[in-house]
Amino acid sequence: MPNKRLLEQYTVPVPFFGFINVGKQEYRFLGLLELLRNYQETQVDTGGELRNVWIFEFRIHSDPNIVPIDHAPAICAQFLAESKRATPYLERELANPVEEMTPGKLPVPFPELEKLRAQMLQIHPISFEGLVKALMQASRFVDVAVTRASGDGGIDVNAFVDETDDFFAGTHVQVQVKRRRHAVGSVEVNNFRGALNTTAKGVFITTSHYTRAAIGEARHPSKPCITLIDGGRFAEMVMRNRIDYTAFLKHEGSSS
């Protein structure tokens, strides 16, 4: 079960303090932490075994940078109240990863998907974009290119639908890639939409999950639709297309 003290912050302004180890047993104060969401998922441990784990995602409030212990509960109560007003409930709620990757409904065994997802998190971000490129080429996209690491405006991969596709031939597809563990929210999806070329179709790929608000934003009825691919689905696509992902574990260079 998740830590009850941590979960208490959902209803009571319990102050949590964040620190980072900067070496030689020296710690730097990061700020007060706000628990955004918690959820259970399956991950691979250091021995290669699958285990059920609890994930806790926090928002760091670094202002003020000095927090007197006696004043911490009052300061915490203030920023929690302001944050809850500014953050919709669906932004805090995750689209259930268990529902997304239900064993028995996938063409690839669930344990194999989770092991692959764990390995993908070890790939350098630039090489991971190369893996996305290889998958798109295997999926019959043409003129697939990884953008430069700097100045890409939020677009990581450009591609075009093959001319043999009767419905979408020639469609320009732009992709944003997030290789990380914490969930993608609606703000990131909306920012990606703003970075797209006016005629391009958007695809967002993450090794993690999406909040329910992110899914709602991607499917907004009055905005261009964004396709969302989470970690489980991406792993399944890599295995189904027999992409040699191990090649991308060995280097950190771009493959554009």
Any chance you could write out the topology, listing elements then pairs?
Blueprint: H1 4-7, E1 16-23, E2 26-44, E3 50-61, H2 72-86, H3 89-92, H4 97-100, H5 110-120, H6 125-138, E4 141-146, E5 157-161, E6 172-178, H7 186-195, E7 201-206, H8 212-218, E8 226-229, H9 231-240
Parallel strand pairs: 6-7, 7-8
Antiparallel strand pairs: 1-2, 2-3, 4-5, 5-6
Helix pairs in contact: 5-9, 7-8
Could you characterize the architecture of this molecule?
The protein has two domains: about 5-85, no CATH class; about 110-250, Trna Endonuclease, Chain: A, domain 1, CATH 3.40.1350. It starts with a helix and ends in a 16-residue tail after the last helix. The protein has helices spanning about 5, 70-85, 90, 95-100, 110-120, 125-140, 185-195, 210-220, 230-240, and strands at about 15-25, 25-45, 50-60, 140-145, 155-160, 170-180, 200-205, 225-230. α5 packs across α9 (about 230-240) and α7 (about 185-195) runs parallel beside α8. The relative contact order is 0.14. Strands 4-5-6-7-8 form a five-stranded mixed beta sheet, with helices on both faces. It is an alpha/beta fold. It has nine helices and eight strands. Helices cover about 30% and strands about 25% of the residues. Residues about 100-105 have low confidence and may be disordered. The protein is globular.
